[in-house]
Amino acid sequence: MTNEKPGKSLSGWAALAIHLLFIAAVVWLLVGSISGNQWSVSRIVLMAFLLIAVALFLPFGYFTLQPNEAKVLILFGKYKGTIRTDGFHWVNPFKLAVPRSRYTLSLRIRNFEVEKLKVNDKRGNPIEIAAVVVWRVEDTAHALFDVDRYEHYVKIQSDAALRHLANCYPYDHGEEEEVTLRSGIDEVSSVLREELRERLAKAGVMVDETRLTHLAYAPEIAGAMLRRQQAEAIIAARRKIVHGACSMVEMALEDLQSKKVVELDEERKAAMVSNLLVVLCGEAEATPVINTGTLYK
């Protein structure tokens, strides 16, 4: 693997000053040859051609870098370093490979959204999942020389990592203390980030953040799963209501006994418990029935 190293360049303004001096020297030689300078004509022509060649060669070495941009230098197929300093630069024109845009890399933070994928979760249920990946180029040499088209590499590896993540966790209703895609969003996103960092390190890419943006059952089972969720919600609510009603009945019996309001035998206690549970657990308002006799007639 090729590791990034700093490249060398001259200030573009210093190179521009030298460039202007070469142009002035060419003009001076031409004027001297016309005015009958003591130099031989052949020598003057040779020097003029050399200076003109240098004056035409220098401009191809100029380039500018904006903040968070990098230029990769290559000399006859050999990597010569990376320049990360923004500003006006000049290097040997042979180090600026063509096309130049390919070897100018953006170091800015980028967002990539993994499109909605249809995969199976840990229990084999088909689900739809999507995520957003925040990434940036950290090593320009890895990005250009160790993978082919690093942006496409990021896309393919992000898809693969998201599919693998969905296969490792259930959508919901996991076992006791089991992390699920629905309940453990933060932990799942952290696992996805670490996996992507490991996968994309070969491309010199650093993943700063990942976040699930879409999570749902596939349409073919969404209706059945919705009914299951509704049933579980009803059961959980009923369980809570019954638990509260039993606590209230127990409290009522204890208060009646401790305050000696009335003495109840076991049969009357059973009848009272039954009536209170009907009142407290029923969905509709209870309709009282007045008993004018006793419980035994």
Describe this structure in a few short sentences.
This protein has 297 residues and is an alpha+beta fold.
How would you characterize this protein structure?
- By secondary structure, the protein is of the alpha+beta class.
- It has three domains: 10-106, no CATH class; 110-217, Band 7 domain (Tetrahydropterin Synthase, Chain A), CATH 3.30.479; 221-281.
- Helix content is 47%, strand content 21%.
- It contains seven helices and nine strands.
- The protein has helices spanning 12-34, 41-57, 140-146, 150-168, 185-200, 219-259, 266-281, and strands at residues 10-11, 62-65, 69-75, 78-83, 87-90, 104-106, 110-120, 126-137, 205-217.
- A three-stranded antiparallel β-sheet has the order 1-5-2. It has a three-stranded antiparallel β-sheet with strand order 4-3-6, with no helix packed on it. The protein has a three-stranded antiparallel β-sheet with strand order 7-8-9.
- Strand 7 and strand 8 form a beta hairpin.
- Helix 1 (12-34) runs antiparallel to helix 2.
- The longest helix has 41 residues, at 219-259.
- The termini are far apart.
- The model has no long low-confidence stretch (mean pLDDT 85).
